[in-house]
Amino acid sequence: MKRFAKLSFLYGILGLFLGVFYREFTKINGYTEETVLSGLHTHVVVLGTFFFLIVLLLENSFELTRNKNFNKFFITYNIGLLLTVIMMAIRGCVEVLNLEISTMIDSSISGIAGLGHIIIAIAYILFFLILLDRIKNVDSKKVDCIQSGT
């Protein structure tokens, strides 16, 4: 459980940093239009900080880490989230700096960001399968305890 609290804290710090980065980077560059950078703070705080606080609470109730696929979920989710955030940051910096990039690079940035979102979606499915399995196991243990009188 400590691992989830620490990871949540790290994502919180990253989210705060990215919020400051967005404000200062756009200010330094005199950029006043919409940019992908504005969504970085929210993405990291919600998908990183809050999500792992929820995982911590669910671990306490359902022992999610007992599922053999939990580490697969954990690694997949973090890779997807970090890939998404990195590509959003690159896209936002390209927008703010008004960089001339080729269509191929532009498409690559979008494609890799999309891949990050797909990886997160796969991790979510895996997470819910793990959660449902652990709920089923906890419920069956409660039934066993009631039937045995313990």
The pLDDT mean sits at 94
| First-to-last CA distance | 27 Å
| Total domain units | 1
Strand content: under 5%
Could you characterize what this model shows?
With 150 residues, this protein is mainly alpha-helical. The chain has one domain. The protein contains four helices and no strands. The longest helix has 46 residues. The mean pLDDT is 94.
Summarize the topology.
Layout: H1 2-28, H2 40-62, H3 70-97, H4 103-148
Helix pairs in contact: 1-2, 2-3, 3-4
List keywords for this structure.
150 residues; mainly alpha
In short:
The protein has 150 residues and is an all-alpha fold. It has four helices and no strands. It has helices at residues 2-28, 40-62, 70-97, 103-148.
